[in-house]
Amino acid sequence: MVQWDMSKGKVADRKAGANSEPRIVATRQAGELHQVVTVVGGKGTYRKKPCVTCPWKKSVVGEFPAEAFRHSARTAYDMSEHAFACHESGVKRPSVCAGFLLKGAEHNLKVRLGRMQGKFKDDVTDGGEELFESYRAMAVANGVGADEAVLQPCRDD
Q1: Following CA atoms 107, 110, 138, 92 in sequence, which dihedral angle do they give, to the nearest 10 degrees?
Q2: Residue 146 CB contacts under 8 Å (≥ 6 apart), including other chains
Q3: What is the pTM of this model?
């Protein structure tokens, strides 16, 4: 699972923007076989439909460990600058996840600005898949406790 960190905490990153080469700024273990990687830069692309093992699909519950959802919860916080990326896109060509754009990005600052700037269009589809209604619902279905502090700031509406 990849978390695309769109915040540009340093002046150099701000100048580089979304068209810079992707750069890994953090890696966190999320179980024995998984990790969540934070990437800055890249072309600012997005997926048009959920990938085969998209965690937003209800049919994929259990594919990723609960810890991955804890690490990525901040993508669903109000006015977050961190976007939930498609794990199949990887870190060399990061793309925002289609499931996230459809169900988890309404209050995400980076996505809202991207829509206003024409970077994200209305061409994303669920591909006929049943998706979770919110990040919280997806995380809970994958083992994160509903009352855990990491989920409290998540926006569901």
Answers
A1: 180
A2: 136, 140
A3: 0.85
